[in-house]
Amino acid sequence: MTAVPGTPAVAPDALRRAPASAAGAPPHRRVQRKVREALLGYALVLPSLVVFGVFVFYPFAKNFWLGLYRTPPFPGLPREYAGLDQYRDVLGSDEFWNSFWVTVRFVLLTVPAGIVLGLALAVLAHQRLRGIAIYRTIFSSTVATSVAVASVIFFTLLNPQIGLFTYWLGREGGLSPLDDPDTALYAVSVTTIWQNLGLAFILMSAGLQAVPDELLEAARVDGAGVWRRFRRVTLPLLGPTLLFAIVVGSILAFQAFGQIDLLTEGGPEDRTNVLVYAIYTAVFKEGNEGKGAILAIALFVITLVLTLVQLRFLERRVTYER
Could you count the other beta carbons within 10 Å of the beta carbon of residue 157? Predict the structure, then answer.
């Protein structure tokens, strides 16, 4: 082989070995490497799959199976196969639709009001004032309050004999708002809003802290007032936080149970009988596992559809730019 002048000579053996080294490892070793990576990935995911399988997928399949059988009125008797007829009977009953609309009203009463109040408190606490940390602590304190504690507090405040709220409402010595069919759902909603206010405040405060001060300062220099800066700059940039708060708040409202059980037990006249409490009543009070399983599946489907609708239509108005 004749070398080109000005270039180093390359041995023939080096030329023959160059393509093999450039191509990398042999094919069988690449296949083995991919198999090892896949096995490692499955091994890392396996614990989560086991947890989801035991606590999510299996209960859901078991609920669907239970819904196919009618529970006998007396214990010890075998279940009677009813197929999808029981689904039609339960989901078409007036009891189910009453619980559904009560739940929808409960969500509409608690979620928007809770987000608006949380945002208002977050805006107030976002000011750079001396001692503002004290107010931030007070506003967020309800996040550490359990449903039981919040329910006991409002049960006392709404007591017709010693309750402060009943005194303000002119109901002292009379009927408690929790016992009035026209006001029971509103009373439970106020309890829920207060109990979840700390979470809403923390979420909104985190969103406000992520808004760049440069944009607000630029808007102020351009002559925008306080309300216009909030509406044109702050509120659009809070879109991701508001979307998260709406979705999570709606899911929590659909799963509300503790305050209903402690304050009204679904009454009076089923005016506060939300879907979760209807499931509890069917399983633990009526002993009808099939009915409770169908209601649980219906609640899952409703929550899933609501979440997908919220993500599809509300996310269009959300901007992630800073």
Answer: 19
